């Protein structure tokens, strides 16, 4: 085992170098994925669990590639143990993550049914099901299931190991362990377990929601399962024809495993990253506390295209000042403050250049803050304090939103400029419903708490 990589033929050496290079890029993609975890396509894919599974796949790819590159110095037993452990850990984690998504969508549907049902008997039954699902989806329960399940899946190969076989495998390098009977047996055990996991991916993908799939979860798992199934077949062929020149020289049955890691990271991390390029982070802070209709309208106005379309329509309706006033108050809140007095003078003061039609009581409220209470007084720090109070215009923003929702929005939805609003509203309703479910998993007090208005836009899987 004291030979070096110069004894590897140029062809296989080039393949191993490429595998190592691509493997080194995987942690970068996972890091960006974690940083963008608030974007819808990523947020609803269970980002922490997905990042963990993808990290295990990246370790499998990088470790396996490096060992192939240095195959004359790595013991056969160590190599096989490494591959087996990380393949099982990765695939079991992915299966559990997919099961978690299935249960989350199931919980979402039960919550919708619970709030839509009028029968007390059915409501009582649904509460029991909801509580059971909530217990299964608690983070601690998921960790316990992963630990116990992984240990159980790691046990089968122990039955075919003995001290003499282990010592024999450790005495040879990866380059020389092709013909060891135990090595072949371990590969068949590994292959059988992988086959079970791939079958489970297909079954679980069938139960992923078809309705709430604007985040691409179902399609990603289906694609990953199909690609892994192809690699599974290739691995079986490579084991069967392990003595042929190309399979033995290029170590093809080992090369397939790092490629499987690429498939996992590609489908679970890179794919949602690409789709999140044109999304906004899911904060919902701008519409927190609003009714569903106002929340959707504000989220729509917060997008560049939404603001452009709605403001263009408002010009036609001679209500452009409302949209501009909302934007000023919205950006004041978003940036944590600004020139508060300038906003008051522009939109709220009597005779303002773009005076808005707000209730008199609200106008007097801001008059007292910015004009009346300042007459004949100089209060040190008052103006600065107001400029840094990000919530000072919340009441004004709410009033403008209600005005636009009642007066402008209904006509906007039937105009050519607003043709995409209903699609956006349904997408937002789905996102808010899932956010509500995710939050409810951390709330032990009320297992069925949710905004009932969300269920009005929520279609169900049949």
UniProtKB/TrEMBL annotation:
Transmembrane helix in keyword set: yes
Membrane-spanning ranges: 13-34, 55-75, 81-105, 141-160, 180-204, 254-274
Gene3D superfamilies noted in UniProt: Regulator of G-protein Signalling 4, domain 2
Entry-linked InterPro entries: RGS (IPR016137), RGS_sf (IPR036305), RGS_subdomain_2 (IPR044926)
Boundaries of every RGS domain copy: 296-412
Sorted UniProt keywords: Membrane, Transmembrane, Transmembrane helix
Protein name: RGS domain-containing protein
């Amino acid at each position: 085992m004291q030979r070096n990589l110069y004894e590897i033929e140029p062809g296989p050496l080039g393949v191993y170098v490429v595998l190592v290079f691509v493997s080194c890029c995987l942690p970068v993609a996972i890091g960006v994925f974690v940083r963008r975890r608030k974007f819808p396509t990523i947020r609803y894919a269970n980002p922490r669990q997905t990042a963990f599974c993808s990290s295990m796949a990246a370790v499998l790819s990088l470790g396996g590639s490096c060992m192939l590159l240095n195959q004359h110095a790595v013991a056969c037993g160590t190599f096989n143990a490494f591959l087996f452990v990380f393949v099982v850990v990765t695939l079991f984690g992915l299966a559990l993550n997919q099961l978690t998504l299935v249960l989350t969508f199931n919980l979402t549907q039960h919550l919708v049914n619970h709030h839509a049902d009028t029968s007390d008997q059915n409501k009582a039954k649904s509460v029991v099901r909801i509580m059971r699902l909530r217990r299964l989806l608690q983070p601690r329960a998921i960790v316990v299931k992963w630990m116990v399940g992984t240990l159980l899946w790691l046990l089968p190969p122990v039955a075919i190991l003995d001290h003499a076989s282990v010592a024999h495998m450790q005495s040879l390098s990866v380059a020389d362990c092709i013909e060891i009977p135990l090595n072949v047996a371990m590969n068949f055990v590994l292959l059988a377990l992988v086959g079970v996991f791939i079958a489970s991916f297909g079954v679980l993908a069938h139960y992923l929601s078809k309705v709430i799939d604007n985040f691409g979860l179902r399609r990603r798992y289906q694609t990953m399962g199909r690609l892994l199934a192809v690699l599974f077949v290739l691995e079986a062929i490579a084991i069967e024809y392990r003595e042929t020149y190309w399979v033995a020289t290029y170590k093809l049955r080992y090369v397939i495993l790092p490629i499987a890691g690429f498939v996992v990271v590609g489908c679970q991390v890179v794919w949602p990253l690409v789709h999140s390029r044109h999304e906004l982070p899911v904060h919902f802070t701008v519409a927190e506390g609003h009714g569903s209709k106002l929340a959707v309208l504000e989220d729509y106005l917060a997008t560049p295209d939404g603001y452009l379309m709605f403001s263009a329509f408002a010009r036609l309706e001679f209500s452009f000042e409302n949209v501009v006033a909302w934007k000023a108050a919205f950006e004041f809140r978003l940036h944590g403050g600004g020139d508060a007095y300038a906003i008051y003078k522009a939109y709220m003061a009597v005779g303002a250049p773009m005076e808005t039609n707000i209730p008199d009581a609200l106008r007097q409220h801001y008059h007292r803050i910015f004009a009346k209470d300042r007459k004949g007084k100089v209060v040190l720090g008052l103006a600065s304090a107001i400029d840094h109070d990000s919530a000072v215009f919340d009441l004004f923003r709410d009033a403008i939103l209600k005005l636009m929702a009642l007066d402008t929005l209904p006509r906007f939805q039937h105009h050519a400029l607003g043709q995409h609003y209903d699609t956006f509203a349904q997408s937002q309703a789905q996102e808010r419903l899932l956010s509500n479910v995710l939050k409810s998993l951390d709330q032990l007090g009320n297992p069925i708490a949710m905004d009932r208005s969300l269920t009005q836009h929520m279609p169900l899987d049949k």
